[in-house]
């Protein structure tokens, strides 16, 4: 399966969107139409790259918009950029989400004691390639960190791109600890402190910030796929989420190709990008 993107609006503005197309050139939702599995028998998953490594723009799947394009998150009326908390520059992995998953905000996780955050499950790709925004990669799951973000369970699944030249050497979370020393500790530090420059307290973690292994992580991903199935079949209340899709044939939200094209026609034309504010390069230092 191959996927391409189509940009709309001007990058670094509120109107900017990244839409997705399948190999037939039909518009799709990255949340609902890209299959969770690239190879189910081997537990290889698809992942949507929202934020390439080293960049700061908080791009995310727009779960409440038709066809769920990528758009930049807003905070207090401004585009959101993640602060650089020394020694980190932007995101320290390719950051994104696994399609056809959903962290149900009405389900209290038995391990964390907190409900889901109403989003697809997040991934941190530790491969050496800096991916591009909107790239669809195939990933091997290695483990997971349970972030508690403002009282919600927000799993961070550690993965590696299967096309990475070293992918065969990474099969569990201990391999990351052994082969990329310091990376897991930096990951905990990043998630703990990234909101501190915004005046918020440090984030907390379940399991005292310990990473859970591959099997636990895969089980967690699969459970969020079951929550998504209930969502897309209308067995669960979607609330503000937009479940418009073009390929889940038994979903009451499935739409025609014409309906999907109408969404694109209503978006702003692609144009020249605005400059990124110089303040995004500021570094913050904390004990």
Automatic annotation (TrEMBL):
Pfam families: Pyrophosphatase. InterPro entries: Pyrophosphatase, Pyrophosphatase_sf. Its EC number is 3.6.1.1. Coiled coil: none annotated. SUPFAM superfamilies: Inorganic pyrophosphatase. It is an enzyme of class 3 (hydrolase). GO terms for biological process: phosphate-containing compound metabolic process. Keywords: Acetylation, Hydrolase, Magnesium, Metal-binding. Its cofactor is Mg(2+). GO terms for molecular function: inorganic diphosphate phosphatase activity; magnesium ion binding. GO terms for cellular component: cytoplasm. Gene3D superfamilies: Inorganic pyrophosphatase (3.90.80.10). It comes from the Eukaryota. Homodimer. Belongs to the PPase family. This is inorganic diphosphatase.
């Amino acid at each position: 399966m191959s996927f391409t993107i189509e940009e709309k609006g001007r990058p670094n503005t509120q109107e900017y969107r990244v839409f997705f197309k399948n190999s037939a050139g039909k518009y799709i939702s990255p949340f609902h139409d890209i299959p969770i599995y690239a190879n189910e028998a081997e537990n290889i998953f698809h992942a949507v790259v929202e934020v390439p490594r080293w960049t700061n723009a908080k791009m995310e799947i727009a779960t409440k918009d038709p066809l769920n394009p990528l758009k930049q998150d807003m905070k207090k009326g401004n585009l959101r950029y993640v602060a650089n908390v020394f020694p980190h520059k932007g995101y320290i992995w390719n950051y994104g989400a696994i399609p056809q998953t959903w962290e149900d905000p009405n389900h209290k996780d038995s391990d964390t004691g907190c409900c889901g955050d109403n989003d697809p499950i997040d991934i941190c790709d530790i491969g050496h390639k800096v991916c591009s925004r909107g790239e669809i990669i195939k990933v091997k799951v290695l483990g997971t960190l349970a972030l508690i973000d403002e009282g919600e369970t927000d799993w961070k699944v550690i993965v590696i791109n299967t096309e990475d030249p070293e992918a065969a050497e990474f099969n569990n979370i201990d391999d990351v600890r052994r082969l990329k020393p310091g990376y897991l500790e930096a990951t905990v530090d990043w998630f703990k402190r990234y909101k501190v420059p915004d005046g918020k307290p440090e984030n907390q973690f379940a399991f005292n910030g310990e990473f859970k292994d591959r099997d636990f992580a895969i089980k967690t991903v699969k459970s969020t796929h079951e929550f998504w199935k209930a969502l897309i079949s209308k067995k669960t209340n979607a609330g503000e989420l937009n479940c418009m899709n073009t390929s889940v044939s038994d979903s009451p939200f499935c739409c025609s190709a014409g309906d999907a094209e109408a969404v694109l026609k209503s978006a702003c034309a692609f144009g020249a990008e605005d400059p990124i504010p110089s303040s995004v390069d500021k570094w913050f230092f904390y004990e």
